[in-house]
Structure formats: structure tokens, C-alpha cells
């Protein structure tokens, strides 16, 4: 019987119960659940995995809780530079955008690149000019203003220090993402981020780089990453998971654990990822204290978690039993 699977993330890092108020935890979990249900509804109605991950990420971009879209952090110059990518596992088509300032939902622009251009990766003013031609929604600067983000920036804006979306004692990487398998067995992934607080020189991380922070291939899996982007770039994390499955025959969980809990740790990289394989199994490993995450399939209730001690990182065994 055909079934679907979907997983999402909202960032990883030093996220502990001690650093979270009960009220804030409820807000995060509610936002994750609502975004997850957006994608699940599309999949349940026979929609494509590509549509599901796009609209799920839009929902996450629209909340200021996460470092993407509306909640994006401030750059060295007090602006917002956003990156996003989306990839179709069936065709290997991909769209990516980097360094855009005023796009309301960067993932929508990435999808438009797939649909209406011969390119994969656009950046800066050129990407925004393409967005105007595609009638992609823009938003004024005040739409992206968030008091907490502004406070974070204010603490370091007169220095050369950059922050990976954290305040002291609360290191969290707020990149958002989604992966899905639809009822036709097709895979897709999407990722979106506001980057680093106080970042300079138009720095770009792994999120929009196909194979580093975002990847999907029907033969193996779909992956979306969150963490310290420089390390994910060097390790080509998303594609490495796929390669371990394709060339070494590893299971999704083993491939993810090898990359996140061994290779990244050896490099000194912190973060995690979400992934789904072509059988609908899901893995959500991370090597940090916590990761905002959630998943479900066509026969399961939503699973929402933040900390390591809540439930196992992977629901693959549960999914295998239910489908």
C-alpha cells in the first residue's frame, strides 16, 4: 500500500530544558506541529513531495521563532541576508538562492528557479530581479525585525565576532528544513536560513549549496541539514549520506550516523540533519544538545521533539512497523 513520510527541523545546538521556559517550549512545539501538518496534508491528498517540502518550509519561514524568512538574524550591516534551496529527487532538478535581502519566502524563489529558469543557483540582486519577474512576494525591512534577533546583533555589531544564531549559553542553529516521500514514492528536500548573526562579506553557508546542506535523490534519500555551515560544506554532508547508501549499501540510519556522529564530530562540526529514504524510513540524528524536529507518516501521529532525552533520534523502526 502506498504511504508517505515527512520530517522537519527548526535548528540544532545547545538547546536544553534549562535554557527553555515552558511557555517558549510550547510555542516551538506548536510551530513545528503546524508546519508538519501543512506538509502532511499535501501528501495525504496525493500532492508531490516537492510541493510538500516547499509549503512546509514556507510555514517555518513565516514564524519569527526560527532563523529563516521572517525570523532571520541581522548581518554586520543590520540587514538580513537569506539563503534557501529545494531539490526534486525524481528529476534531480534543484533551485537555490543566496544573499537575498527582502524576499518574504526565499524557498518560493528557489522553487521558481526550478520551474522557470535554466539555472540552479542565483544570488544577490540578480536573484531579486528574477524574483520580481516571477511575481515572488517581497516584504519591507520591518517585517523581518525581531527584538531578540536585534538584541543578539547589538551585543556583537561593533566587533568582528559573528554568532551562529545564539546568545551565551543558548547556542542554537535556527535553519529550517523539510524532507518528504510522497504517495508515488518520490523524494524531495528544502532548506532555508538567515545565516549568522553579524556575518560579514556576504558569507554563505551550506544551506543553498546542493549536496552540502540540501540534497534529494529517489535512488537513495532526501536530506536537509542544520548546523555550523562551514563544516557541513567541507564534509559535503547531504550528498555524503546519499553516497554511503548508494555505494556502500548502508541503511539510512547508519549513513546518517556515520556522517553526523563520526565524520562531523571528527572535524569539529556541530549540528544535525533530517532524512527520509525511498522506503519512507526517517532519520533525525544530531551531535548537539538538541534539535527542533518533527516527523510523521501516513499511519502515525506527529512526533515532535527538542531534546536528546525525549525519544530516539530515528523513527525508522516505528515507521517500518506501521507501513
Q: What does it look like?
A:
Pfam families: Asparaginase_2. This is Isoaspartyl peptidase. InterPro entries: Ntn_hydrolases_N, Peptidase_T2. GO terms for molecular function: hydrolase activity, acting on carbon-nitrogen (but not peptide) bonds, in linear amides; peptidase activity. The chain has nine helices and 14 strands. Helix 2 packs antiparallel against helix 3 (about 105-115) and helix 7 (about 235-250) packs across helix 8. It has helices at about 20-45, 50-60, 105-115, 125-135, 145-155, 230-235, 235-250, 250-265, 315-320; strands spanning about 5-15, 80-90, 95-100, 120-125, 165, 170-175, 175-180, 185-195, 215, 220-225, 270-275, 280-285, 290-295, 305. Mean pLDDT is about 85; it is low at about 160-170, about 310-315 and about 315-323. It has a single domain (about 5-320), classed as Glutamine Phosphoribosylpyrophosphate, subunit 1, domain 1, CATH 3.60.20.30. The strands form two sheets. Strands 1, 2, 3, 4, 5, 6, 7, 8, 13 and 14 form a ten-stranded mixed sheet that branches.
List the helices and strands and how they pair.
Layout: E1 5-13, H1 22-44, H2 49-61, E2 82-88, E3 94-100, H3 106-116, E4 121-123, H4 124-133, H5 147-154, E5 166-167, E6 170-173, E7 176-181, E8 187-193, E9 214-216, E10 221-227, H6 229-235, H7 237-248, H8 252-267, E11 271-277, E12 282-283, E13 290-297, E14 303-307, H9 316-322
Parallel strand pairs: 3-4
Antiparallel strand pairs: 1-6, 1-7, 1-13, 2-3, 2-8, 5-6, 7-8, 9-10, 10-11, 11-12, 13-14
Helix pairs in contact: 1-2, 2-3, 7-8
The largest pleated sheet is described as:
10 strands, mixed
Class in CATH?
Alpha Beta
What's the CATH architecture?
4-Layer Sandwich
The Rg value, from CA coordinates, equals: 18 Å
Mass-distribution shape: globular
Helix and strand sequence: EHHEEHEHHEEEEEEHHHEEEEH
Query: Unreliable stretches, pLDDT < 50, 5 or more residues?
Result: 161-172, 310-314, 317-323
Mean pLDDT: 87
> Might you state the CATH topology name?
Glutamine Phosphoribosylpyrophosphate, subunit 1, domain 1
CATH 4th-level superfamily: (Glycosyl)asparaginase
Helix content: 25-40%
Multimeric state: single chain
Strand content: 15-25%
Number of strands: 14
GO molecular function, one term: peptidase activity
Binding site for substrate: 203-206, 226-229
Protein name: Isoaspartyl peptidase
Pfam family, one: Asparaginase_2
Amino acid at each position: 500500500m502506498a504511504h508517505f513520510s515527512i520530517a522537519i527541523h527548526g535548528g540544532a545546538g545547545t538547546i536544553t530544558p534549562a535554557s527553555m521556559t515552558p511557555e517558549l517550549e510550547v510555542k516551538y512545539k506548536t510551530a513545528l506541529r503546524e508546519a508538519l501538518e501543512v506538509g502532511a496534508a499535501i501528501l495525504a491528498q496525493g500532492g508531490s513531495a516537492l510541493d510538500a517540502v516547499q509549503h512546509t518550509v514556507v510555514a517555518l519561514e513565516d514564524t519569527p521563532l526560527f532563523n529563516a524568512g521572517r525570523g532571520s538574524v541581522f548581518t554586520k550591516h543590520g540587514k538580513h541576508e537569506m539563503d534557501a534551496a529545494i531539490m526534486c529527487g525524481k528529476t534531480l532538478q534543484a533551485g537555490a538562492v543566496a544573499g537575498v535581502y527582502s524576499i518574504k519566502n526565499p524557498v518560493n524563489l528557489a522553487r521558481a528557479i526550478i520551474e522557470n529558469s535554466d539555472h540552479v543557483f542565483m544570488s544577490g540582486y540578480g536573484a531579486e530581479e528574477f524574483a520580481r519577474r516571477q511575481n515572488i512576494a517581497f516584504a519591507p525591512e520591518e517585517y523581518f525585525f525581531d527584538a531578540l534577533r536585534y538584541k543578539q546583533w547589538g551585543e556583537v555589531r561593533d566587533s568582528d565576532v559573528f554568532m551562529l544564531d545564539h546568545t551565551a549559553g543558548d547556542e542554537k542553529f535556527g535553519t529550517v528544513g523539510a524532507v518528504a516521500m510522497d504517495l508515488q514514492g518520490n523524494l524531495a528536500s528544502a532548506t532555508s536560513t538567515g545565516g549568522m548573526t553579524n556575518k560579514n562579506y556576504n558569507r554563505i553557508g551550506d544551506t543553498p549549496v546542493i549536496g552540502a546542506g540540501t540534497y534529494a535523490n529517489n535512488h537513495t534519500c532526501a536530506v536537509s541539514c542544520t548546523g555550523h555551515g562551514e563544516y557541513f560544506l567541507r564534509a559535503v554532508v547531504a550528498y555524503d549520506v546519499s553516497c554511503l547508501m548508494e555505494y556502500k549499501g548502508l541503511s539510512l540510519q547508519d549513513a546518517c550516523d556515520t556522517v553526523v556522529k563520526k565524520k562531523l564530530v571528527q572535524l569539529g562540526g556541530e549540528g544535525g540533519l533530517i532524512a527520509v529514504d525511498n522506503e519512507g524510513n526517517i532519520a533525525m540524528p544530531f551531535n548537539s544538545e538538541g534539535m527542533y524536529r518533527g516527523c510523521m507518516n501516513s499511519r502515525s501521529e506527529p512526533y515532535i521533539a527538542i531534546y536528546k532525552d525525549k525519544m530516539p533520534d530515528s523513527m525508522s523502526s516505528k515507521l517500518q512497523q506501521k507501513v
